[in-house]
Predict the structure of DUF3040 domain-containing protein.
Amino acid sequence: MPLSEHEQRMLEQIESALYAEDPKFASSVKRRRLGRSSSGRRRLQAVAVFVIGLVLLVGGLVVEVRVGGFPIISLIGFLIMFGAGLMALWGGEGRSSGGDQGSGTTATKKAKAGGQKRKFSERMEDRFNRRFEQE
């Protein structure tokens, strides 16, 4: 069921408030979404590695190199395919911006973050209450 226009506007307001309150957290959440964290180049590399794994998987059954009665080349192919899938899903997370360095102590930063979260949650609660008062 698609969202109504009002719900879409509310979601956009929540997203923009999140970016305003804590842009570092918002960008890290956006970057970690599955399927969106990888660039096109990274996905292309993952597809190429997946195809190599598929060739090894099928080729291992044709060549019949067995260790203890188990087709070891096919196992290696499967593991390569699995790794390619992981690379496609979570390939872009390893990058860091180095934005943790700055002025102030960590206790001060935590206190500020806690205050911002409280204000944000209060505003979201008010908006939620207003929404049901309108209907």
